[in-house]
Amino acid sequence: MSARPPTSIILPTTRWTDACAELAAQLGDSDELLVIHDGANDPVTERADYPEGVRIIAAGEPEYCSGKANAIAAGMEAARHERLVWTDDDFHHPPDWLATCSADYDEYGPVSEVPYFVGRDPLSVLLEPLYAAAGSLPLSLGNQIWGGAVMFERGDIDEAAFLDDLRRTVSDDGLLMEYLQVTNVGRTRIVPIGGTIREAVERPVRWTQILRWHFPGAIAGTVLVSLLVLAGAILAPLYAAAVLTVLHLAVNELLGVRRWTAVLAYPAVFVFVPLLLYGLIRRTFVWGGRRYRWRGKFDVTVVQ
């Protein structure tokens, strides 16, 4: 641990979760874990003490950006070190996670990992295979960034310009992709999502709008391919069901995940495509308890 450069881990969360404890246990003597929350009423502030190396920082309420973007910006400004890690509080960080990421950076430069989203409600479970194929696989194969596990150094980006833009947008990792090239090392992390049908509906709306404003070409291609797949599923249901199932089993193999939900790929298409179109026309969406109106890449209103 002492041989690697000191690292600042930026973790936006309003609660002290298992991930907080896992990361705190991995800190070296000079490392720090910055737990970034909104304000004094958040549950994370109720602890009497925190492990050594942990700092609790209030980001305040966002004005023209998402709560996540606001927290990341506050964390980067408060961080003491050159080497930075962004991560999330909703997946398991094994004991060697930080050391492994640092070793990867030393070998490749900026690096990221891959999320595999596992549903906690019926709709999220149904959509699992399409999240894997349309979300996780392109991140892995395309050397793209997942904000839940990315390591870079300040000198890798134009930090001042990035922070200015970050405080005016919704997607932290969507914006970072415009500033930073990474090597995606392909390690897959299981990330539970959903819990309620409302959450399951809001998530694809947010993801669709991230693509719309940051990667318009990608969302156009996604809509076109999805409509073609839906047409095939309607016109040749047996053939489509077999092909989609086999393809999604192959996707899972590439991601290193064994999930029975690959067999849901065929019925998922009939839900995914309407949600995709709904996400394009929806005027607001909810994320982390706040409702946002996103009218342009740098035109964000916090509605409530």
From TrEMBL:
One GO term describing the cellular component: membrane
Membrane is among the record's keywords: yes
Location of the protein in the cell: Membrane
Membrane topology: Multi-pass membrane protein
Pathway: Sphingolipid metabolism; Lipid metabolism; sphingolipid metabolism
InterPro entries cross-referenced by the UniProt entry: Ceramide_glucosylTrfase (IPR025993), Nucleotide-diphossugar_trans (IPR029044)
Keywords: Glycosyltransferase, Membrane, Plasmid, Transferase, Transmembrane, Transmembrane helix
SUPFAM superfamilies: Nucleotide-diphospho-sugar transferases
Gene3D superfamilies recorded: Spore Coat Polysaccharide Biosynthesis Protein SpsA, Chain A (3.90.550.10)
Transmembrane segments: 213-240, 260-281
A Pfam family: Glyco_transf_21
Record GO terms (molecular function): glycosyltransferase activity
Protein name: Glycosyl transferase
UniProt organism field: Haloferax mediterranei (strain ATCC 33500 / DSM 1411 / JCM 8866 / NBRC 14739 / NCIMB 2177 / R-4)
